[in-house]
Amino acid sequence: MRPVDIEALTVPGILALHGDLLLTAVSRPDLKTNSYRSGLRRVDLGGGGEGPWTHGAKDSAPAVSPDGRWVAFLRAGEGSGRAAKPQVHVMPAAGGDAKRITDLPLGAGAPVWAPDSRRITFVARVPEAGRYGTENADGETPEPGEEAPRHIKNLFYRVDDAGFLNDRPQRLFVVDTAAALDEEAPAELTPLTDDRADVDHPSWTVDGEHVLFTAPRDWAAEDTVRSDVYSVPAGGGEPRLLVRSLGTADRPVVAPDGSILFYGTEFSGQEEIARNTGLWQASWPSGAEPSAPRRLTDVETVDCDNAASAPVVVGEEVLVVVRTRGAAELRAVPLDAELAELKTLRHLAGERTVVKSFAVDGDRIVAVIGTPESSGDVVLLSNGEPRVLTDYSKALRDTGILPLEELDTTAPDCYPVHGWIVRPEDDGPHPVVLMVHGGPFAPYEWKVFDEAQVLAAAGYAVVLGNPRGSAGYGESHGRSIVHGFGTVDADDLLALLDEALKLPNLDSDRVGVMGGSYGGFMTSWLAAHHGGRFRAAWSERAVNAWDSFVGSSDIGWFFAGGYVGDDPEEQRKRSPLTYAGKIDIPFMVVHSEQDWRCPLEQAQRMYVALRQNGVAAEFLLFPGEGHELTRSGLPRHRVQRFDAVLQWWGRHL
Fold first, then answer.
1. Domain annotation covers residue 620
2. What is the CB-side half-sphere exposure of residue 191 using CA atoms within 13 A?
3. Is the peptide bond before 440 cis (omega within 30 degrees of 0)?
4. pLDDT score recorded for residue 6
């Protein structure tokens, strides 16, 4: 795989299934337009292939109405401004023209149909007058730099890749599609929630009378990362607290029996990081007091991936995706479960693969599954043996995908360590790059990883590990580095590297280390404390100094205290910048100008310290990008970054 082959990363996303109609939104990077193109595709459940369903350049988030007559989706236009924002469109399921039914200044979120197939709910950001291209009280539309000052009175006021929050809160809407389809222009819509806090994850009650959603604890009256489940009458009225979580609540749905299901984490005291996400259930409250939830899945062994889908009830079970040992498996949780362990949950799909999304209609289950050979294909899981219905990864395979080889070893304290290596095809000896993931409560997975494939195709063996601190190996594994960054996690990574170097045709004298975010932290840490193991380092979007991270990162105000603690001396001790004077290998600092997760000053401080110490340090700075450059940055920037990576390792390995 070459850098320009990111165009072959064709990825199916949300699935919509009703009867014989199966739709998915498929996206890919496009270097010519320097953007991401996406369209809705219809997949033949009989195995007859797939084809275009819509012809927009940026169509996504399909949803089929419960009666099967309509398809709602998001369509964004070209260019900039209001016309480029995603708006809800509706078209007949039998085919025909799509009609736009929203016209919101900042666009709309994914549509969710009501049971009556006449209404849709969604969330959307609503800007204050005079901001983000809207008129102010004087009828003027200020340029961004001429807008009034933001008056900020909370800590959670901006998010990387999203922007400022308080001046454009995310609010809940319901639109009458039947009426909208009869109108020539989209109607003015009134939000059902106010501007006190962002709301998210809307869904309907079975009778269609109420919409469920999540919102910050007590409507963000105080700074918090905790969230709860609320409802509001679909026709308007006062929101009601339904479930007070023990930490966070995501993607609530009402089960056929009237109970409420949601994904949630459970906090202990102020420890709000590195917690497994479980499946929870609560009764619909009969009085004014919210219901107390109960956890259906085990705290230690079950970590649900709430990005894959909301919980789906099938008979007496609930389908969820669970992260485990680098896989993301579709599992079934009994509705009457009590802290069910992973080994007891019925397995439907995902062994040594990654279930990215799924959908259910009647007895049919479909899923998007990524594998070590594919970035994702649509698979029919019911009606016999699993059947792959698409071949979106053919172009990717044609680039020459190299296999993931599993590695298992033990750390110096005998703790098991798991990971992989991706090796070039020729005989070598190959230089080696130890690559560290971000998070840290995240995993490398059993799927195609473009970073490793590009390097391996260029002749480098790439070692990928899930050290202590990673997700998917039990909550205690993930919490092993709380107040211990740079301890057992570093031991695990070096042990995995040593295990890899036992393989033939690898050159132990030509080893580099690289990573981003937490992986950037670890790259800086290893370069300072184990620099003799490496020829050079590539540290990207890193945390290098906890003292300034606390006050500059969008999550620093709780993340640093949770992982490192509030003691200034301990923060200094756990900061790679403290040990910059010990780094003596060539060191590349890589960052994005608009990174709010690990702000630019984190890179600047490390770069200046290294240069002042005489280190051969360089600084690669990407304009206009945020923390997610390597995953969703402009396609040309992603290619330019890959070119720089290959040039760097070409010089030093």
1. yes
2. 22
3. yes
4. 97
